[in-house]
Input
Amino acid sequence: MSGGSKRAIRVVRAGALTTVQDCGRPGYAHLGVPRSGALDAPAHHQANRLAGNPPGAAVLETTLTGVAVSAGSEVTVAVTGTEAAVRIDGQPSPLRKATLLRPGQVLEVRQASTGVRSYLAFSGGLDVPRVLGSASADLLSGLGPARLADGDVLQLGSPGSPECREGCALGELAAPALPGLVVHPGPRLDWLASPGLAALEDGQWTVSPQSNRVALRLQGQPVHRRRGELASEGLVSGAIQALPDGHLVLFLADHPTTGGYPVIAVVDPACLPACAQARPGSKISFRVASSRD
Amino acid sequence: MKFRPAGPAALLVEVDSLAMVRALYARIERERAHGWAAGLVDVIPAARTVLLDGVADQAALAAEIRSWSIVPSPPAAGQVVEIECRYDGSDLGEVGRQWGIRPEQVAAIHSALSHEVAFCGFVPGFPYVAGLGGGREVTRRDRPRAAVPAGSVALGDEYTGIYPRASPGGWQIIGHTDAVMWDPGRDPAALLQPGDRVRFVDVTP
Output
Protein backbone atom coordinates (compact mmCIF):
# COMPACT_ATOMS: atom_id res chain seq x y z
CA MET A 1 0.00 0.00 0.00
CA SER A 2 1.47 3.37 -0.98
CA GLY A 3 1.01 6.72 0.66
CA GLY A 4 -0.10 5.31 4.01
CA SER A 5 -3.72 6.42 3.53
CA LYS A 6 -6.17 3.84 4.80
CA ARG A 7 -7.91 1.98 2.03
CA ALA A 8 -11.46 1.85 3.32
CA ILE A 9 -15.06 2.68 2.55
CA ARG A 10 -17.67 4.17 4.86
CA VAL A 11 -21.32 3.21 4.77
CA VAL A 12 -23.48 6.29 4.17
CA ARG A 13 -26.78 4.44 3.73
CA ALA A 14 -26.86 0.72 4.54
CA GLY A 15 -30.16 0.02 2.75
CA ALA A 16 -32.69 -2.64 3.67
CA LEU A 17 -30.14 -5.45 3.95
CA THR A 18 -26.57 -5.18 2.75
CA THR A 19 -24.07 -7.88 3.62
CA VAL A 20 -20.49 -8.84 2.85
CA GLN A 21 -20.34 -11.94 0.65
CA ASP A 22 -17.74 -14.10 -1.03
CA CYS A 23 -17.82 -17.76 -2.07
CA GLY A 24 -19.04 -18.93 1.32
CA ARG A 25 -18.04 -21.95 3.40
CA PRO A 26 -17.97 -25.11 1.30
CA GLY A 27 -16.80 -28.23 3.10
CA TYR A 28 -18.28 -27.67 6.57
CA ALA A 29 -21.83 -28.87 6.01
CA HIS A 30 -21.23 -32.01 8.10
CA LEU A 31 -20.79 -29.67 11.08
CA GLY A 32 -24.06 -27.89 10.35
CA VAL A 33 -22.40 -24.90 8.65
CA PRO A 34 -24.43 -23.56 5.70
CA ARG A 35 -22.70 -22.96 2.36
CA SER A 36 -23.64 -19.26 2.36
CA GLY A 37 -21.86 -16.89 -0.09
CA ALA A 38 -23.12 -14.53 -2.81
CA LEU A 39 -26.56 -15.62 -4.03
CA ASP A 40 -25.98 -14.46 -7.61
CA ALA A 41 -22.55 -15.99 -8.11
CA PRO A 42 -22.00 -14.91 -11.75
CA ALA A 43 -22.75 -11.29 -10.82
CA HIS A 44 -20.35 -11.58 -7.86
CA HIS A 45 -17.58 -12.88 -10.13
CA GLN A 46 -18.27 -10.25 -12.79
CA ALA A 47 -18.04 -7.39 -10.28
CA ASN A 48 -14.68 -8.66 -9.07
CA ARG A 49 -13.37 -9.11 -12.58
CA LEU A 50 -14.20 -5.48 -13.35
CA ALA A 51 -12.60 -4.22 -10.14
CA GLY A 52 -9.45 -6.21 -10.88
CA ASN A 53 -9.96 -8.73 -8.08
CA PRO A 54 -9.83 -12.51 -7.96
CA PRO A 55 -13.36 -13.76 -8.77
CA GLY A 56 -14.05 -14.87 -5.20
CA ALA A 57 -13.04 -11.63 -3.42
CA ALA A 58 -15.44 -10.25 -0.80
CA VAL A 59 -18.03 -7.77 -2.12
CA LEU A 60 -21.21 -6.08 -0.92
CA GLU A 61 -24.56 -7.70 -1.69
CA THR A 62 -27.58 -5.39 -1.48
CA THR A 63 -31.28 -6.20 -1.19
CA LEU A 64 -33.91 -4.24 -3.16
CA THR A 65 -33.08 -0.76 -1.86
CA GLY A 66 -29.38 -0.52 -2.73
CA VAL A 67 -26.68 1.12 -0.64
CA ALA A 68 -24.49 4.22 -0.52
CA VAL A 69 -20.81 4.25 0.44
CA SER A 70 -18.10 6.88 0.44
CA ALA A 71 -14.49 6.20 -0.49
CA GLY A 72 -11.76 6.81 2.09
CA SER A 73 -9.14 6.59 -0.63
CA GLU A 74 -8.92 6.17 -4.37
CA VAL A 75 -10.61 2.90 -5.30
CA THR A 76 -11.85 1.22 -8.46
CA VAL A 77 -15.46 0.09 -8.09
CA ALA A 78 -17.89 -1.94 -10.17
CA VAL A 79 -21.60 -2.58 -9.71
CA THR A 80 -23.27 -5.67 -11.18
CA GLY A 81 -26.36 -7.77 -10.56
CA THR A 82 -29.86 -6.42 -10.83
CA GLU A 83 -30.71 -3.40 -12.97
CA ALA A 84 -30.48 -0.33 -10.71
CA ALA A 85 -29.52 3.31 -11.12
CA VAL A 86 -25.95 4.06 -10.01
CA ARG A 87 -24.84 7.56 -9.00
CA ILE A 88 -21.41 8.95 -8.11
CA ASP A 89 -21.87 12.22 -6.24
CA GLY A 90 -25.30 12.38 -7.84
CA GLN A 91 -24.06 11.89 -11.41
CA PRO A 92 -25.25 8.80 -13.34
CA SER A 93 -22.64 6.09 -13.67
CA PRO A 94 -22.99 2.91 -15.73
CA LEU A 95 -23.57 -0.59 -14.43
CA ARG A 96 -20.98 -3.27 -15.19
CA LYS A 97 -18.18 -0.79 -15.77
CA ALA A 98 -14.97 -0.28 -13.79
CA THR A 99 -15.10 3.26 -12.38
CA LEU A 100 -12.63 5.21 -10.30
CA LEU A 101 -13.95 6.61 -7.04
CA ARG A 102 -11.91 9.47 -5.54
CA PRO A 103 -11.54 10.04 -1.78
CA GLY A 104 -14.76 11.49 -0.37
CA GLN A 105 -16.88 10.63 -3.39
CA VAL A 106 -20.15 8.85 -2.69
CA LEU A 107 -21.22 5.85 -4.73
CA GLU A 108 -24.93 5.18 -4.52
CA VAL A 109 -26.84 2.20 -5.84
CA ARG A 110 -30.53 3.04 -5.91
CA GLN A 111 -33.67 0.91 -5.76
CA ALA A 112 -33.45 -2.28 -7.82
CA SER A 113 -35.66 -1.86 -10.86
CA THR A 114 -35.97 -5.48 -11.99
CA GLY A 115 -34.36 -7.98 -9.63
CA VAL A 116 -33.28 -7.87 -6.00
CA ARG A 117 -29.52 -7.88 -5.48
CA SER A 118 -26.65 -5.66 -6.60
CA TYR A 119 -22.98 -6.58 -6.13
CA LEU A 120 -20.41 -3.88 -5.39
CA ALA A 121 -16.77 -4.84 -5.82
CA PHE A 122 -13.90 -2.59 -4.67
CA SER A 123 -10.33 -2.97 -5.89
CA GLY A 124 -8.46 -5.01 -3.30
CA GLY A 125 -11.70 -6.57 -2.06
CA LEU A 126 -13.34 -6.05 1.32
CA ASP A 127 -10.96 -7.04 4.10
CA VAL A 128 -13.12 -8.32 6.95
CA PRO A 129 -12.33 -11.08 9.46
CA ARG A 130 -12.90 -14.52 8.00
CA VAL A 131 -14.77 -17.28 9.75
CA LEU A 132 -13.94 -20.79 8.49
CA GLY A 133 -12.15 -19.20 5.56
CA SER A 134 -14.98 -16.94 4.45
CA ALA A 135 -16.04 -13.31 4.85
CA SER A 136 -19.69 -14.13 4.08
CA ALA A 137 -22.47 -13.06 6.40
CA ASP A 138 -24.59 -16.16 6.98
CA LEU A 139 -28.01 -14.99 8.08
CA LEU A 140 -29.23 -18.43 9.17
CA SER A 141 -26.44 -19.29 11.57
CA GLY A 142 -25.05 -15.85 12.40
CA LEU A 143 -21.53 -16.67 11.17
CA GLY A 144 -19.48 -13.91 9.57
CA PRO A 145 -19.79 -10.13 9.78
CA ALA A 146 -23.01 -8.43 10.85
CA ARG A 147 -25.23 -6.83 8.22
CA LEU A 148 -24.08 -3.30 7.37
CA ALA A 149 -25.24 -0.34 9.44
CA ASP A 150 -25.01 3.36 8.62
CA GLY A 151 -21.58 4.72 9.58
CA ASP A 152 -19.76 1.36 9.40
CA VAL A 153 -16.21 1.52 8.05
CA LEU A 154 -14.95 -1.44 6.02
CA GLN A 155 -11.26 -1.95 5.26
CA LEU A 156 -10.09 -2.84 1.78
CA GLY A 157 -7.27 -5.21 0.83
CA SER A 158 -4.36 -4.32 -1.39
CA PRO A 159 -5.26 -4.21 -5.07
CA GLY A 160 -3.60 -6.85 -7.21
CA SER A 161 -2.76 -6.54 -10.88
CA PRO A 162 -6.15 -6.05 -12.43
CA GLU A 163 -7.45 -7.91 -15.44
CA CYS A 164 -9.72 -4.91 -16.03
CA ARG A 165 -8.81 -1.25 -15.62
CA GLU A 166 -10.88 1.85 -15.27
CA GLY A 167 -13.29 2.15 -18.16
CA CYS A 168 -13.40 -1.57 -18.81
CA ALA A 169 -17.01 -2.66 -19.32
CA LEU A 170 -18.72 -6.04 -19.54
CA GLY A 171 -22.08 -6.96 -20.99
CA GLU A 172 -25.14 -8.30 -19.24
CA LEU A 173 -24.72 -11.85 -18.10
CA ALA A 174 -26.55 -14.32 -20.28
CA ALA A 175 -28.28 -16.45 -17.68
CA PRO A 176 -31.62 -18.23 -17.56
CA ALA A 177 -34.36 -15.86 -16.45
CA LEU A 178 -37.72 -16.25 -14.73
CA PRO A 179 -40.33 -17.53 -14.91
CA GLY A 180 -39.22 -20.97 -16.14
CA LEU A 181 -36.79 -22.72 -13.79
CA VAL A 182 -35.22 -25.98 -14.90
CA VAL A 183 -35.64 -28.65 -12.23
CA HIS A 184 -34.28 -32.14 -11.73
CA PRO A 185 -36.81 -34.54 -10.18
CA GLY A 186 -35.98 -36.11 -6.83
CA PRO A 187 -34.46 -37.20 -4.55
CA ARG A 188 -37.92 -37.61 -2.92
CA LEU A 189 -40.26 -37.25 -5.86
CA ASP A 190 -42.00 -40.41 -4.59
CA TRP A 191 -43.44 -38.28 -1.74
CA LEU A 192 -45.50 -36.37 -4.27
CA ALA A 193 -48.94 -37.95 -4.67
CA SER A 194 -50.73 -38.08 -8.01
CA PRO A 195 -50.29 -36.34 -10.42
CA GLY A 196 -46.65 -36.20 -9.29
CA LEU A 197 -44.31 -34.30 -11.54
CA ALA A 198 -47.17 -32.93 -13.62
CA ALA A 199 -48.26 -30.86 -10.59
CA LEU A 200 -44.89 -29.11 -10.74
CA GLU A 201 -44.87 -28.64 -14.52
CA ASP A 202 -48.46 -27.40 -14.77
CA GLY A 203 -48.47 -25.14 -11.71
CA GLN A 204 -47.46 -21.55 -11.27
CA TRP A 205 -46.08 -20.03 -8.09
CA THR A 206 -45.53 -16.54 -6.70
CA VAL A 207 -42.45 -15.56 -4.69
CA SER A 208 -43.61 -14.67 -1.18
CA PRO A 209 -42.39 -11.54 0.66
CA GLN A 210 -41.16 -13.94 3.39
CA SER A 211 -38.33 -14.98 1.06
CA ASN A 212 -34.73 -14.26 2.05
CA ARG A 213 -31.16 -15.55 1.67
CA VAL A 214 -32.24 -18.83 3.23
CA ALA A 215 -35.06 -19.65 0.84
CA LEU A 216 -37.68 -18.50 -1.62
CA ARG A 217 -41.07 -19.31 -0.16
CA LEU A 218 -43.50 -20.03 -2.98
CA GLN A 219 -47.22 -19.40 -2.93
CA GLY A 220 -49.48 -21.33 -5.25
CA GLN A 221 -51.74 -24.31 -5.59
CA PRO A 222 -50.54 -26.68 -2.84
CA VAL A 223 -49.10 -29.95 -4.12
CA HIS A 224 -50.47 -33.24 -2.81
CA ARG A 225 -47.93 -34.86 -0.56
CA ARG A 226 -47.74 -38.26 1.01
CA ARG A 227 -48.32 -38.15 4.76
CA GLY A 228 -45.69 -39.29 7.21
CA GLU A 229 -42.32 -38.35 8.59
CA LEU A 230 -39.01 -38.47 6.81
CA ALA A 231 -35.81 -38.63 8.84
CA SER A 232 -33.70 -35.47 8.45
CA GLU A 233 -31.27 -35.62 5.52
CA GLY A 234 -28.72 -33.43 3.76
CA LEU A 235 -29.87 -30.56 1.53
CA VAL A 236 -28.32 -28.95 -1.53
CA SER A 237 -28.84 -25.38 -2.76
CA GLY A 238 -31.82 -25.30 -5.09
CA ALA A 239 -33.62 -28.08 -3.22
CA ILE A 240 -37.42 -27.71 -3.33
CA GLN A 241 -39.11 -29.03 -0.21
CA ALA A 242 -42.80 -29.88 -0.07
CA LEU A 243 -44.15 -28.86 3.34
CA PRO A 244 -46.92 -30.87 5.04
CA ASP A 245 -49.50 -28.30 3.85
CA GLY A 246 -48.31 -28.66 0.24
CA HIS A 247 -46.47 -25.35 0.00
CA LEU A 248 -43.01 -25.21 -1.54
CA VAL A 249 -39.72 -23.86 -0.18
CA LEU A 250 -36.78 -23.36 -2.56
CA PHE A 251 -33.46 -23.24 -0.72
CA LEU A 252 -30.79 -20.63 -1.41
CA ALA A 253 -27.23 -20.26 -0.08
CA ASP A 254 -27.99 -19.75 3.63
CA HIS A 255 -30.14 -22.90 3.81
CA PRO A 256 -29.87 -25.29 6.77
CA THR A 257 -27.57 -28.22 6.01
CA THR A 258 -30.23 -30.82 6.81
CA GLY A 259 -33.99 -30.91 6.73
CA GLY A 260 -36.83 -33.32 7.37
CA TYR A 261 -39.35 -32.39 4.67
CA PRO A 262 -39.11 -34.28 1.38
CA VAL A 263 -37.18 -32.63 -1.45
CA ILE A 264 -39.26 -33.35 -4.53
CA ALA A 265 -36.96 -31.66 -7.04
CA VAL A 266 -33.78 -29.60 -7.28
CA VAL A 267 -33.40 -26.42 -9.34
CA ASP A 268 -30.57 -26.59 -11.85
CA PRO A 269 -27.53 -24.62 -10.58
CA ALA A 270 -27.61 -22.48 -13.75
CA CYS A 271 -31.01 -21.17 -12.63
CA LEU A 272 -29.97 -20.20 -9.09
CA PRO A 273 -28.92 -16.65 -10.11
CA ALA A 274 -32.46 -16.11 -11.41
CA CYS A 275 -33.77 -17.30 -8.03
CA ALA A 276 -31.42 -14.85 -6.30
CA GLN A 277 -32.94 -12.03 -8.32
CA ALA A 278 -36.59 -13.14 -7.97
CA ARG A 279 -38.55 -10.28 -6.43
CA PRO A 280 -41.44 -10.88 -4.06
CA GLY A 281 -44.50 -11.19 -6.28
CA SER A 282 -42.62 -12.64 -9.27
CA LYS A 283 -44.12 -15.64 -11.01
CA ILE A 284 -42.22 -18.92 -11.11
CA SER A 285 -42.91 -22.05 -13.11
CA PHE A 286 -40.92 -25.26 -13.46
CA ARG A 287 -39.69 -27.19 -16.46
CA VAL A 288 -38.26 -30.64 -15.96
CA ALA A 289 -34.69 -30.95 -17.23
CA SER A 290 -34.26 -32.81 -20.47
CA SER A 291 -31.03 -34.43 -21.63
CA ARG A 292 -30.19 -31.13 -23.36
CA ASP A 293 -30.04 -29.20 -20.07
CA MET B 1 -28.49 -49.24 -0.60
CA LYS B 2 -30.45 -46.83 -2.75
CA PHE B 3 -29.05 -43.98 -4.83
CA ARG B 4 -31.16 -40.89 -5.40
CA PRO B 5 -29.85 -37.98 -7.49
CA ALA B 6 -30.28 -34.62 -5.74
CA GLY B 7 -29.98 -32.30 -8.72
CA PRO B 8 -27.30 -32.75 -11.38
CA ALA B 9 -24.30 -32.66 -9.05
CA ALA B 10 -25.27 -34.44 -5.84
CA LEU B 11 -26.16 -37.96 -4.82
CA LEU B 12 -28.22 -39.02 -1.81
CA VAL B 13 -27.27 -42.52 -0.68
CA GLU B 14 -29.98 -44.13 1.39
CA VAL B 15 -29.31 -47.02 3.78
CA ASP B 16 -31.47 -48.78 6.35
CA SER B 17 -29.80 -48.03 9.66
CA LEU B 18 -27.62 -45.55 11.50
CA ALA B 19 -24.98 -48.30 11.72
CA MET B 20 -24.88 -48.38 7.91
CA VAL B 21 -24.67 -44.57 7.73
CA ARG B 22 -21.74 -44.77 10.13
CA ALA B 23 -19.97 -47.42 8.05
CA LEU B 24 -20.60 -45.70 4.72
CA TYR B 25 -19.55 -42.26 5.99
CA ALA B 26 -16.37 -43.72 7.51
CA ARG B 27 -15.53 -45.47 4.23
CA ILE B 28 -16.15 -42.31 2.18
CA GLU B 29 -13.96 -40.22 4.46
CA ARG B 30 -11.22 -42.88 4.32
CA GLU B 31 -11.35 -42.92 0.52
CA ARG B 32 -11.38 -39.11 0.33
CA ALA B 33 -8.26 -38.98 2.48
CA HIS B 34 -6.61 -40.91 -0.36
CA GLY B 35 -7.79 -38.54 -3.05
CA TRP B 36 -10.96 -40.34 -4.09
CA ALA B 37 -13.69 -38.25 -5.78
CA ALA B 38 -11.66 -35.06 -5.55
CA GLY B 39 -14.57 -32.92 -6.75
CA LEU B 40 -16.67 -33.66 -3.68
CA VAL B 41 -17.34 -30.47 -1.74
CA ASP B 42 -19.54 -31.66 1.12
CA VAL B 43 -20.41 -35.06 2.55
CA ILE B 44 -23.33 -34.93 4.97
CA PRO B 45 -24.21 -37.98 7.06
CA ALA B 46 -27.73 -37.96 8.50
CA ALA B 47 -30.15 -40.41 10.07
CA ARG B 48 -30.53 -42.86 7.17
CA THR B 49 -28.63 -41.13 4.37
CA VAL B 50 -25.28 -39.77 3.30
CA LEU B 51 -25.43 -36.84 0.86
CA LEU B 52 -22.50 -36.36 -1.50
CA ASP B 53 -22.43 -32.85 -2.97
CA GLY B 54 -20.07 -32.13 -5.84
CA VAL B 55 -20.47 -35.29 -7.91
CA ALA B 56 -19.29 -35.16 -11.52
CA ASP B 57 -20.70 -38.51 -12.68
CA GLN B 58 -23.57 -39.78 -10.53
CA ALA B 59 -23.86 -43.18 -12.22
CA ALA B 60 -20.15 -43.91 -11.99
CA LEU B 61 -19.95 -42.87 -8.35
CA ALA B 62 -23.02 -44.93 -7.47
CA ALA B 63 -21.55 -47.97 -9.21
CA GLU B 64 -18.31 -47.58 -7.33
CA ILE B 65 -19.99 -47.22 -3.94
CA ARG B 66 -22.23 -50.18 -4.72
CA SER B 67 -19.12 -52.27 -5.30
CA TRP B 68 -17.83 -51.58 -1.79
CA SER B 69 -18.67 -54.21 0.77
CA ILE B 70 -20.09 -52.14 3.57
CA VAL B 71 -21.26 -53.86 6.71
CA PRO B 72 -23.08 -52.08 9.53
CA SER B 73 -20.41 -50.93 11.92
CA PRO B 74 -20.72 -50.57 15.67
CA PRO B 75 -19.80 -47.22 17.23
CA ALA B 76 -16.09 -46.63 16.76
CA ALA B 77 -13.85 -46.97 19.79
CA GLY B 78 -12.95 -43.36 19.12
CA GLN B 79 -13.33 -40.12 20.98
CA VAL B 80 -15.59 -40.05 24.03
CA VAL B 81 -16.78 -36.59 25.00
CA GLU B 82 -18.29 -35.93 28.42
CA ILE B 83 -21.07 -33.37 28.59
CA GLU B 84 -21.92 -32.15 32.07
CA CYS B 85 -25.66 -31.67 32.24
CA ARG B 86 -27.90 -30.13 34.88
CA TYR B 87 -31.15 -32.04 34.53
CA ASP B 88 -33.40 -29.08 35.30
CA GLY B 89 -35.29 -28.66 32.01
CA SER B 90 -38.88 -27.54 31.91
CA ASP B 91 -40.02 -30.59 29.89
CA LEU B 92 -38.81 -33.24 32.37
CA GLY B 93 -42.45 -33.83 33.31
CA GLU B 94 -43.50 -34.40 29.70
CA VAL B 95 -40.55 -36.71 28.98
CA GLY B 96 -41.31 -38.63 32.21
CA ARG B 97 -44.91 -38.96 31.09
CA GLN B 98 -43.83 -40.29 27.67
CA TRP B 99 -41.41 -42.74 29.30
CA GLY B 100 -43.90 -43.74 32.00
CA ILE B 101 -41.67 -42.68 34.90
CA ARG B 102 -41.41 -39.82 37.39
CA PRO B 103 -39.68 -36.59 36.17
CA GLU B 104 -36.83 -37.00 38.66
CA GLN B 105 -35.99 -40.42 37.17
CA VAL B 106 -35.24 -38.99 33.69
CA ALA B 107 -31.69 -37.91 34.61
CA ALA B 108 -30.60 -41.37 35.75
CA ILE B 109 -31.96 -43.04 32.64
CA HIS B 110 -30.70 -40.45 30.14
CA SER B 111 -27.19 -40.29 31.60
CA ALA B 112 -26.91 -44.11 31.69
CA LEU B 113 -27.72 -44.57 27.99
CA SER B 114 -24.88 -44.81 25.48
CA HIS B 115 -25.03 -41.95 23.01
CA GLU B 116 -23.31 -41.28 19.71
CA VAL B 117 -23.27 -38.26 17.41
CA ALA B 118 -25.13 -39.42 14.31
CA PHE B 119 -24.86 -36.15 12.43
CA CYS B 120 -24.79 -32.38 12.81
CA GLY B 121 -27.22 -29.91 11.31
CA PHE B 122 -29.83 -27.23 12.02
CA VAL B 123 -27.25 -24.64 13.10
CA PRO B 124 -23.44 -24.86 13.33
CA GLY B 125 -22.40 -27.19 16.13
CA PHE B 126 -25.88 -28.64 16.76
CA PRO B 127 -25.36 -32.41 17.21
CA TYR B 128 -28.01 -35.05 16.64
CA VAL B 129 -26.86 -37.41 19.40
CA ALA B 130 -28.46 -40.82 18.86
CA GLY B 131 -29.17 -42.96 21.90
CA LEU B 132 -32.89 -42.98 22.61
CA GLY B 133 -33.75 -46.07 20.57
CA GLY B 134 -35.61 -49.05 21.95
CA GLY B 135 -38.76 -47.30 23.09
CA ARG B 136 -37.17 -44.15 24.53
CA GLU B 137 -37.99 -42.05 21.44
CA VAL B 138 -39.54 -38.72 22.39
CA THR B 139 -42.34 -36.89 20.61
CA ARG B 140 -41.58 -33.24 19.90
CA ARG B 141 -43.67 -30.40 21.31
CA ASP B 142 -46.87 -29.60 19.39
CA ARG B 143 -45.76 -26.03 19.01
CA PRO B 144 -42.06 -25.04 18.91
CA ARG B 145 -40.73 -22.51 21.40
CA ALA B 146 -39.77 -19.19 19.82
CA ALA B 147 -36.51 -19.12 21.79
CA VAL B 148 -34.65 -22.02 23.35
CA PRO B 149 -31.67 -20.77 25.40
CA ALA B 150 -28.10 -21.66 24.37
CA GLY B 151 -26.86 -24.75 26.22
CA SER B 152 -30.28 -26.38 26.40
CA VAL B 153 -30.18 -30.19 26.29
CA ALA B 154 -33.33 -31.41 24.59
CA LEU B 155 -34.86 -34.60 23.24
CA GLY B 156 -36.57 -35.22 19.90
CA ASP B 157 -37.34 -38.59 18.33
CA GLU B 158 -34.30 -40.87 18.93
CA TYR B 159 -31.93 -37.95 19.48
CA THR B 160 -30.55 -35.68 22.16
CA GLY B 161 -29.73 -32.23 20.84
CA ILE B 162 -27.69 -29.45 22.42
CA TYR B 163 -28.44 -25.87 21.33
CA PRO B 164 -25.18 -24.00 20.51
CA ARG B 165 -27.00 -20.67 20.45
CA ALA B 166 -30.46 -19.38 21.32
CA SER B 167 -32.80 -20.48 18.56
CA PRO B 168 -36.40 -21.53 18.02
CA GLY B 169 -36.91 -25.19 18.84
CA GLY B 170 -39.54 -27.87 19.22
CA TRP B 171 -37.62 -30.45 21.22
CA GLN B 172 -38.37 -31.37 24.85
CA ILE B 173 -35.88 -29.62 27.13
CA ILE B 174 -34.51 -31.85 29.90
CA GLY B 175 -31.50 -29.86 31.06
CA HIS B 176 -28.68 -27.42 30.45
CA THR B 177 -24.94 -27.53 29.91
CA ASP B 178 -22.14 -24.98 30.02
CA ALA B 179 -20.23 -26.84 27.29
CA VAL B 180 -19.35 -24.52 24.38
CA MET B 181 -20.77 -26.40 21.42
CA TRP B 182 -19.44 -24.04 18.78
CA ASP B 183 -16.39 -21.78 18.91
CA PRO B 184 -15.16 -20.46 15.53
CA GLY B 185 -11.81 -19.69 17.18
CA ARG B 186 -11.34 -23.37 18.06
CA ASP B 187 -10.18 -26.12 15.68
CA PRO B 188 -12.43 -27.93 15.15
CA ALA B 189 -15.04 -25.30 15.86
CA ALA B 190 -17.70 -27.90 16.68
CA LEU B 191 -17.26 -29.66 20.05
CA LEU B 192 -19.01 -32.76 18.72
CA GLN B 193 -18.42 -34.39 15.34
CA PRO B 194 -20.29 -37.20 13.59
CA GLY B 195 -19.11 -40.49 15.11
CA ASP B 196 -18.13 -39.10 18.53
CA ARG B 197 -19.50 -40.97 21.52
CA VAL B 198 -21.07 -38.86 24.22
CA ARG B 199 -21.43 -39.46 27.93
CA PHE B 200 -23.89 -37.17 29.69
CA VAL B 201 -22.70 -36.57 33.27
CA ASP B 202 -25.40 -35.63 35.76
CA VAL B 203 -24.26 -32.49 37.61
CA THR B 204 -27.70 -31.40 38.79
CA PRO B 205 -27.17 -29.45 42.03
Q: What stands out?
A: Chain A has two domains: 8-155, 180-288. Chain A is about 10% helix and 30% strand. Residues 41-51 of chain A form the longest helix (11 residues).
